[in-house]
Amino acid sequence: MITANRRVQAGVERGKCFEIEVDGEKILAYEGETIAATLLASGKRSCRKTTKRKEPRGIYCGIGLCFECRMMVDGKPNTRVCQTLATPNCKVQTQYIDLED
Amino acid sequence: MSRTAEVVVIGGGVIGCSIAYYLAKKGAKVIVIERKEGLCFGASGANQGGCPVSLFESPVLELVQESLKLYRNLSEEIGYDIEYQNTGHLLCSVNEEQYPDMEKHAQNLRRSGVNVRLIEGNEMRELEPSLVEDIIVGIDEQESGLLNPFKVNYGFARAARKLGTEFLLSTEVKRIEVNKGNITSVVTDRGKIDTNFVVNAAGAWSPEIGEMLGLTIPIKPRRGQIIVTEPVPLNEKWRYISDADYLITAFHAEAVKKSKDPRMKLGVAGSYAQENTGNWTLGSSRDFAGYDNRVTMQTVKYLARRAIKFMPKLKDVNCIRIFAGLRPFCYVDGLPILSKVDNPSGFVIAAGHAGEGVTLAPITGKLISELITENRTSIPIDAFTFSRFKNKN
Amino acid sequence: MREVELAIIGAGPAGICAAIEAAKSNVPVTVIDENLRPGGQIYRRLTDSFVVTDENKLGKDYIRGTKLIGELERYSPKIELTEDAPVWGIFADKEIAFMHEGENEELKPQKLILAEGAYDRPMPFPGWTLPGVFAAGGALRMVKTERVLPGKRILLAGTGPLQLVLATQLMQAGAEVVSVLEAATSTVVWKYFPRFWGQWELLKDGLHYLWQLRRGKIPYLTSHAIVEARGDQEVKEAVYARVDKDGEPIPGTEKTVEVDTICAGYGLIPATRLSRLCGCEHKYEPCLGAWVPSHSENMETTLPGVFVAGDGAGIGGALVAMEEGRLAAIKACQQLGYITQDEARHRSLPIFKKLKGLRRFESALNEIFSIQKGLFTRITDDTIICRCEEVTAGEIRETIADFIAKEEISIQEIKRLTRAGMGNCQGRMCESTIAQMISIETKRPVAEMEWFTPRPPVKPIPLGSLAAEET
Q1: What is the rounded CA–CA span in Å between residue B53 and residue B62?
Q2: Distance (Å, rounded) from C-alpha B94 to C-alpha B116?
Q3: What is this structure's pTM?
């Protein structure tokens, strides 16, 4: 279980909490959070590896324009986690599209 | 500012640059004039980069086969990677009624020396699970390929330049001067070029050039729209797949006109090519809208629907770009024009390649270079003369 | 095809004010916004699942946003608002296509107001693609709206007032902000002081943020810029240096600092994908380093019946956006025949007056914090320019140098030859940089260049949603 909690408490009260699975590990999420927020809260910033240079990429623009935060979510590839809400038990995986398939 | 050239090529697309290269190889001093600030602004920059063999019949089929022979070694020859891949091609049908036509088409191809095999739906799906249940029969052929059309266009230009060809971009031809039936010069908005040979390789805009000499070139722009997807893992067996309806929409205008199906009326028939980067380009469509190269909602919807019909997995894949190209279509018989004209002497037309411009670029370059320097061609081009229109008027 | 009289795309401050203004004249107005709630970026609301216990902790802009959205809600019976609806295309004759609940929908308005907003200028430097490097606007969204810290030990680098807002928010949220690097020189500010005169609200804001940094003992280093982000799988340290008045790093002044997060804030550039797709004229604005749709004083573009307002019409901030939204709506209402020319003039005159002072202030900011040429010299050949297709600066420079007519090379041709701009972000992250690089290599002014050919969709959409109904 990832222990970092970088959530800001001031000014808000969060609602229900639940678990999601990220690359096999269970982490805590709150209702209303995007998966990106949940990842950041647990200190994780990287989302995928690029196809050509196999380099790590993560959340960058935060508003759904750069497409760097694409991950596999519940089997669906190319899901922008900054635009997708965390749901109980959803499965999130680091994405890598291998073209040498 | 005045220049001299042995040949002036009007048009910097794949056709113009290929002609320049093959001419330069024969030692000719060539100047290429292009109106836009780059090379790929016409149909050369708005296509799928597909070189299919099994879509054609005589007399174009023979040209295609020769052209592919040239493509296979081109990267090495010009020292520039055009990203040619021998992907093969699958032509397939979701319509039971097309079965006999498919058999006939396969026979025709075999007769022309193309190695094809008829393959049933189940076997196709075993080899390529992404194909839909409804596919009944297909023609599998191994000679076809996919390439990067921008690299082809630019590669030819680069190689031609190395051999002494000059390129004038952002330059417009104003008139062609003729004296006693012979071309003497080309006048552009940036100066004059003295020459005796002019090649009209201006694609969809070739009629404009023809008019400067009082010639009616029966070519008009035919718009084709293409959807581009984000990259996805490569298909297992076939990365180049066409819908049997393509044979109708591309080559049988009367059948299209008579059809009651709104999809057919827009000329939409599947043509699916997956680039080596994983992106799918999903075509194809045909309509006539003058020089309007904007994308239209209706066509896009039918393109998407047809693509999902053949490969249901595409439903969840994102479309990231849609573009349209203006293909030069000869409205008399749909065949390209590769020909000198009677008057003036020195004027050569190399245009009207419709949806086959990229496929036919190398062979066009070679044949036109032969036509100009030796006044004969290694393959007969009687079917593509300009004089064939005199009788049809 | 549903026909409406007035459609507004975007529910940020410009779109909201335009809608309210139109509602005041009883014009039926349809607003389409891609977010779940109105507010745009600056007035973005928290999720409904969080309960706001103290708005003061969420920043001044949050409180302003609450007020504005409250006003919008008061007019809501007259305003049709469709949320979670990204517009992906505009076709001939203003026909709009958007996605809503997985389906494709279409709308044909008589008058159209585009309030697309703006986004962080992407400014490459070596290592900027490492996880842990955030665009300042993205980091701000995380701390303000999602209420999470983007990292623990944070360096801010860039130029412009947004950095001050971010630094304050991060500090108040408990992050360790190591310093704020500002590429502009401090002395420049005084030259522009006369243009700040009269805009007390804005000046107060600025001074408030500077004071917060002081209190938090966060160094605000002017004439400094980041030179490299280092790390293997994510940011581990940052290298920065002093820069001269042109933004060029001064050799020998490099310092390294251990950080796990870098927030890169180089100002905003207008989102103009839809306005370009419409085909209206755009002008290049050198100090913004971006293209802006040309418009009349009433915010009408060169396409009759199509208006722009807000940051999408030129970076001016929320206050300018609100007034521009009002102007556009007033003109549209007049064109639709709901108000007379006299009434339109009468309502617009005080707005023109207000805008004059506001725009003077904002344009001064844009000039002070303009993107300097020197910032591009730190881009090494190995720096990624097109993030989506992984195209490096070296590849782009080579392509320019090798081109058959180097002086003529266009952005579109670079796209074709390198694939830069062909990815999911559709060129948003690389276009302005490529334009600058061509300008540097060929000495041609960016203003003379055309951009990537505008094509739909302006946002990626699933093929299934595009598809026609089964026949």
Answers
A1: 9
A2: 19
A3: 0.94
Q: Which chain C positions have a beta carbon within 8 Å of B322's beta carbon?
A: 455-457
Tell me if chain C has a CB within 8 Å of the CB of A60: yes
List the beta bridge partners of residue B179.
B182
In this structure, which amino acid lies at residue C113?
I
For the segment(s) A17-94, the CATH number from 1.20.210.10, 3.10.20.440, 3.40.50.720, 1.10.357.140 is 3.10.20.440
Report which secondary-structure segment, H or E, holds B267.
none
User: Does residue C467 fall inside a structural domain?
Assistant: no
Distance of CA C445 to the CA centre of its chain: 23
Would an 8 Å CB–CB cutoff place C49 in contact with chain B? no
**One domain for residues C409 and C296:** no
Cα of C422 to nearest chain A Cα, Å? 13
Cβ of B313 under 8 Å from any chain A Cβ?
no
- Residue C386, domain extent: 379-448
Q: Is the pLDDT of residue A99 over 80?
A: no
With contact defined as 3+ CB pairs under 8 Å, the chains touching A are B, C
For residue C305, give the CATH number of its domain: 3.50.50.60
Above 90 in pLDDT, residue C469?
Answer: no
Number of inter-chain CB pairs under 8 A, A vs B: 21
Partners of residue B319 in chain C, C-beta under 8 Å: 457, 460-463, 466
C355 and C395 share one domain: no
pLDDT given for residue C195 in this prediction: 78
Please tell me whether residues C400 and C349 are part of one structural domain.
no
Predicted confidence (pLDDT) at residue C188 exceeds the cutoff of 50: yes
Q: Do B231 and A76 touch (CB under 8 A)?
A: no
- Report yes or no on C61 lying in a domain: yes
Overall average pLDDT of the B55-66 stretch: 94
Same domain for C386 and C444, yes or no, is yes
Residue of chain A nearest B278, judged by CA positions: A99
Beta-carbon contacts of B146 under 8 Å, excluding residues fewer than 6 positions away, are B48, B49, B50, B51, B84, B85, B87, B239, B240, B273, B274, B275, B276
Cβ distance C32 to C9 under 8 Å? yes
Domain annotation for chain B: domains and CATH numbers: 2-45+150-218+333-392 (3.50.50.60), 89-142+220-330 (3.30.9.10)
Give this complex's ipTM.
Answer: 0.96
| C114 and C130 within one domain | no
Give the chain B residue whose CA is nearest to the CA of A75.
B316
The closest CB to that of C426, out of B37, B316, B320, belongs to B320
| A101–B234 CB contact, under 8 Å | yes
Nearest residue in chain C measured CA to CA from B151: C417
Confidence band (pLDDT; 50, 70, 90) for C97?
Answer: very high
Return the pLDDT at C59: 85
Chain A residues whose C-beta is within 8 A of a chain B C-beta are 51, 76-78, 97-99, 101
The domain segmentation of chain A, as residue ranges, is: 17-94
Q: Are strands C2-9 and C103-114 parallel, antiparallel or unpaired?
A: parallel
Asked, for residue C433, whether it belongs to a domain, the answer is yes
Interval B45-67 mean pLDDT:
95
State the pLDDT at residue B257. 82
Q: Chain C contacts of B150, Cβ < 8 Å?
A: 416-417
C237 burial type by CB count under 10 A (0-12 exposed, 13-18 middle, 19+ buried): middle
Asked if A36 reaches chain C (Cβ–Cβ under 8 Å), the answer is yes
Over chain C, what is the mean pLDDT?
93
Q: Which residue of A has its CA nearest to B274?
A: A99
CB-CB contact of B18 with B361 (8 Å): yes
Q: Is the pLDDT of residue C32 over 90?
A: yes
Whether residue C149 is found in the same domain as residue C236: yes
Q: How many domains does chain C have?
A: 3
Do the Cβ atoms of B245 and B264 come closer than 8 Å?
yes
Q: Using a pLDDT cut of 90, give the percent of chain C over it.
A: 81
Q: Are strands B347-351 and C29-32 parallel, antiparallel or unpaired?
A: unpaired
